[in-house]
Amino acid sequence: MNFPPQLSLYQSTVIMLILLAAIFVLHIACIIILLTATIDNAWWVISAGNMPTDIWARWVFVNNSWHSIDLPSTYPESYLQAVQASSVLACIFSIIGIFVFVAQLFTLPKGQRFLVSGVFQFLACLCIMIAASIYTDRFHTNEQSLGSYGHCFILAWIAFALTFLSSIIYFVLRKKTAE
Amino acid sequence: MLTFLALTSVAFLGIVPEQSQAIAIYTGWERHALVGSDIRLSCSFFSWRWTSEDVTFSWTYRPDGSRDSISIFHYTGGAAYVDNKGPFRDRLEFVGNPGRRDGSILLKNLELNDNGTFTCDAKNPPDIVGRPSSVRLLVFEKVPIQAGVITGAIIGVVLGLLVLIVVIYYLMRFLVARRVFSLSVSKHGKKKKEGSQQRQASFSFYLFHMPLFLSFLPPLLFFLCLLPAPPHTQTHTQTGAYTHPADNTKSNRLVCCHIQALIVK
């Protein structure tokens, strides 16, 4: 990325800092979305009783309060645990990635790419894609009239897109002189 | 004139529907409860007539997946008769108030088998035409959540592999760096000075700084990586400590000692 000569040093520095802030904010947004999708049990909402469910527990509204109950044993056990494991791994990789990015910001020699941060974000992208794909294919396939997908499911797919974008940016970005 | 018209119309409307208006029974649509808890199934009705003394309430129960229903409660002639043979014996209690058109029952100590449809039918003679209303009961089990073994295994294996890969990577780098360092010192005259110094400079610079920030490396490895010193002192010692190229091992040892001394200073 070569700045046009009419831009002063101050202006180019400001542009680079804004770009850096944007990339950092994107990564933080990815982490937040991944954590919400993993922790909040709302991949599927059952219409009868408006019960959000999956992937750890099911919520039921009884006696004017919400109670969490176990998922039914009819769920395919191994697929459920695969979804749980890979969504947790996606969060872990993304969080490690933000620390690695900050470390690489101060230690990378000039002109080199943020490869390791990109690798971690790409691993997070892969893991959340695995989780969301298994869930889409194996759960609630015959129950389309009995409920709808909840916000965590949608966030999982959005996190896939954002982490992919973030990892591409890290693979392409080169370290510049301002840092 | 107008008031007379209004009064007659009200009376007319009052009289005519009395014979065609049916009794309307209200229960809930669906009820959720936990195993072992109690639940109150409410039933009330609306009728144009006054509540008579012969008002009757009756509850029937149809289990999930079954086609026939059994009668579990009946209130008539001022007395309540609860189930004493069926699935709800000793668990059913009448908590309603027939004078207030309330025919609610209380089910105690719910079990998972109590899932089903409860139908309430109320009759207020002479108002007996009506449609019974049903409420669906869903009983849930509250069980503590246990994380799966497979989940933990997958996470543990992947993270373990990650740590292993990083450790092996740094070990390889460290070993290669030491070998390159000793080789470049001995082959001083053969290679181009700037090229080898620059390659070694970026390599050792990289090596010096990376472990500092990846904190899961053991501190021992970190101190070991401090041995290849920063570039400017190395070039200085290389030119200063160069001896005859034939005396390879002896010169190596001498050079190492010189460099060590400089680093310690």
Write the layout of secondary structure elements.
The complex is a heterodimer of chains A (179) and B (265).
Chain A: H1 9-39, E1 44-46, E2 51-53, E3 58-62, E4 65-69, H2 77-107, H3 115-138, E5 147-149, H4 151-172
Antiparallel strand pairs in A: 1-2, 1-5, 3-4
Chain B: H1 2-20, E1 24-27, E2 30-34, E3 39-41, E4 43-46, E5 56-63, E6 70-76, E7 79-82, E8 92-94, E9 105-107, E10 116-123, E11 133-140, H2 149-186, H3 193-213, H4 219-225, H5 231-240, H6 248-264
Parallel strand pairs in B: 2-11
Antiparallel strand pairs in B: 1-4, 3-9, 5-6, 5-10, 6-7, 8-9, 10-11
Helix pairs in contact in B: 2-3, 5-6
Can you describe this structure?
The complex is a heterodimer of chains A (179) and B (265). Chain A is mainly alpha-helical and 179 residues long. Chain A has one domain (5-42, 76-178): Butyryl-CoA Dehydrogenase, subunit A, domain 3, CATH 1.20.140.150. Chain A contains four helices and five strands; from the N terminus they run H-E-E-E-E-H-H-E-H. A three-stranded antiparallel beta sheet of chain A has the order 2-1-5. A two-stranded antiparallel sheet of chain A has the order 3-4. In chain A, strand 1 (44-46) and strand 2 (51-53) form a beta hairpin. In chain A, helix 2 packs antiparallel against helix 3 (115-138). Chain B is of the alpha+beta class and 265 residues long. Chain B has six helices and eleven strands. Chain B has helices at 2-20, 149-186, 193-213, 219-225, 231-240, 248-264; strands spanning 24-27, 30-34, 39-41, 43-46, 56-63, 70-76, 79-82, 92-94, 105-107, 116-123, 133-140. In chain B, the strands form three sheets. A six-stranded mixed beta sheet of chain B has the order 2-11-10-5-6-7, with no helix packed on it. Chain B has a three-stranded antiparallel beta sheet with strand order 3-9-8, with no helix packed on it. A two-stranded antiparallel ribbon of chain B has the order 1-4. In chain B, strand 6 and strand 7 form a beta hairpin. In chain B, helix 2 (149-186) packs antiparallel against helix 3. Chain B is elongated, with a radius of gyration of 46 Å. The relative contact order of chain B is 0.11. Mean pLDDT of chain B is 73; it is low at 215-252 and 254-261. At the A-B interface, strand 3, strand 4 and helix 2 of A face strand 2, helix 2 and helix 3 of B.
